[in-house]
Structures are given as C-alpha cells and as structure tokens.
Amino acid sequence: MATAGAIRRLIPGAPSLRATVARLFMAGIPGPALDDETRRLHAGTPFGGVVLFRENTAPPATMRALTRAIHALDPALPPLVAIDHEGGRVHRLDPPFTHFPPAATVAAHGVGAVRAVAAAMARELAAIGVDLTFAPVLDVASNPANPVIGDRAFGAVPNTATASALAAFRATRARGLLTCGKHFPGHGDTSTDSHLELPLITKNRRALAALELVPFRRAVAAGIPMLMTAHVLYPAVDPTVPATLSRPILTGLLRRALGFRGVICSDDLEMRAIADHWTPGDAAVASLAAGADLLLFCHRQDALRAAVDAVERAVTVGRLPARRVAEAYRRVVALARWRARRGRMLPLAVIGCRAHARLNASLHA
C-alpha cells in the first residue's frame, strides 16, 4: 500500500497524495468566470490546469481576468490555462480575436505563412494569459473520408505535413507558449470520429511507421514538450485497448522506441470512444498506468471528481504504482515551471490588430 509518505520519498517536498494526484488532471470550467463550485473544487488541491472552451468565451479583458483568477488558485505554481486554437473549425474565441483559416489552407501558402500565423495566434493567446495551445495537429490527412481531421492537418503527405507542423511549433514556442502535438500515434486515416465512437486503424507496424509516425518522430527529435493521445484502436500494436489506455503504445512505442521525454496528455476522457466503454475512474487509472502524465476531463465536474478519487484510491491500494504518479507529477510540474519562466502577457491591443487582419486577408486572396 502507498501513502502520501511514499510520494514524498519519491518527490521531496511534494504535497499530499490528493494534491499530487490533482496535478495530473486538466479540467473544464462552466463559464467565463470562476464560480463558487469551481473554486471549491480546486481549493487546496489545484489541478494541473484548466482547458477553455466556447462557454468560456468573453471579451478579451474578461478572459484575461479569468486566466488571472485561474493562475491565482496556486500562486506558487500556477495551473496551466489551455485552449484548442488551431484555426479553421477548431477556434473557440469570438471577435476581436483573429479567426485564421485551417492548417491545410495556411500550409498551401507555404511554410512562411505557417510561421506567421502561428506567431500571430500565439501573440493573441498570450495577451489573455493562455499558457498552452493544443496544437499543432501532427496527423497526416491520408483519408479523404476522415470526418474529424481533414483540413485540420497540414497536409496529406508525411514530409510536407511535418515541415509545416514543426514550423508552427517553433513559432509558437518562440513566443513563450507551450504546444501540444496531436493525436499520437495518428488519427488521420480513421473513417469515424472518436468524439462519437471508437475508431480503428488496421495498418501493420511498417505502414504506421512509414506514414502516421513520421511527424511524431520528427516532433520528438525537435523537442516538442507535449503530445496528446488518440482514442483510436491500433491492433498491430495493441489489439485490446485504444492508444490512450495502451502501455505498448504510450510506453513501448512513444517513450522507448521514439524516445519522447515530455508530457503525454490524454485527449478528453469524456469523449465517447472512451466514455462508452470505461468509467471515468477506470479510464484515468488505465491511462496513467499506460504512461500518460496529464488527463483531460473537459466538461463534467462529477466525472473529474470520480477520476481523481479513483486514482488516489488506486495508488493507496497499490494498483497504480506511486513511482508512476511521481514520474507524471515531475513532468507536469516541469512544464508549468517552464511556462512560468517564459510566460509574458502581451497588451490586449495585439488581439485583432491590423497586422493580423492583413495576414488573415492574404490567406483568403
């Protein structure tokens, strides 16, 4: 059995077991301000971060106040504020924020355009205090019938898609923001949407290595700090569970074969590809055991509570090794500290500025 003492032996100065576990979760919140229930949920055990969605959208000054309130939940190590900000159809923010075209459209204008757009998006996010963008998409759009990736990917050819994705990553990092490449080991060749059901990719290992894994291998080599898992089943690597819950994929393939040392982040564990088959607690424990470090529960606070309870219980009874939790905690904390050192809030006037408007217009010409 493990206790908070075991965690403290592994991580000198670590908080309670509950607080250590809470750092491994990223939560959604219900509106554009921190309500009392959310404050109670985070009181004493700040989570690893908060992910913003459409329901959190507000004028820039209000969103800046929200991110400041989230950071103030733990002034010593502020939780990360994250958002999906790809452009195109994955865009949460209303005007005056600049709504750039999807990745495929930008990439068609060349790598220079990709860099410029990524930098502009990073500046606008930095102005409201966002720390982490769940981008770039590293999937290769190899299946025209794919209902969920499509033009979110930078291209249908591995090498060209990779060049644009890495340009976006580097331009975003240069502005002090964290990035998260997605969705490992590749969601581009599915014919179903993991928000709605569990997709299947039947390629053999050689085919996966020749196409899906190319951008991820190069992103790892380039030092990308975070990768998000795919809720997709790959029988050639693991015939039993999707990548998000798979030790052969997350630890065997991503950690050992590709050498990734950053944070492995799950996609939202409330998506039906997972939630239709596993309880929140079972999914959370399985994903951490597989090698994930940061777990997303983006909408339901009851699911989040159940997952945190389950992970804490699993550590206490020895079903989830304390060393695995300590390893994940160290990675998440290192990421938060990097952002705390690099983060710089820009003036709100950068949002929707003339330079960004001109850049956006050039992509529609």
The quaternary organization reads as single chain
Largest sheet, in brief, is: 9 strands, parallel
Give, in order, the helices and strands.
HHEHEHEEEHHEHEEHHEHEHHEHHH
Mean pLDDT: 94
Number of strands: 11
> Per DSSP, what share of the residues sits in E-state strands of 2 or more residues?
5-15%
Instruction: Give helix % range.
Output: 40-55%
From the spread of the alpha carbons, the general shape counts as globular
Widest sheet: strand ordering: 7-6-3-2-1-11-10-9-8
Specify Rg, calculated over alpha carbons: 19 Å
What structural class do helix, strand and pairing data support?
Answer: alpha/beta
Spatial gap, N to C terminus = 63 Å
How would you explain this protein's 3D organization?
The structure is a single chain. With 365 residues, the protein is of the alpha/beta class. Helix content is 44%, strand content 11%. The protein is built from 15 helices and eleven strands. It has helices at 4-10, 17-22, 36-42, 60-71, 103-107, 111-127, 158-174, 205-210, 213-222, 247-257, 272-275, 280-290, 301-317, 322-342, 354-363; strands at residues 25-28, 49-52, 80-83, 85-87, 90-91, 132-133, 178-179, 181-184, 226-229, 263-268, 294-297. The strands form two sheets. It has a nine-stranded parallel sheet. A two-stranded antiparallel ribbon has the order 4-5. Helix 4 (60-71) links the parallel strand 2 (49-52) and strand 3. Helix 6 runs parallel beside helix 7 (158-174), helix 6 runs antiparallel to helix 15 (354-363) and helix 7 packs parallel to helix 9. The longest helix has 21 residues, at 322-342. The protein is globular and about 60 Å long. It starts with a helix and ends with a helix.
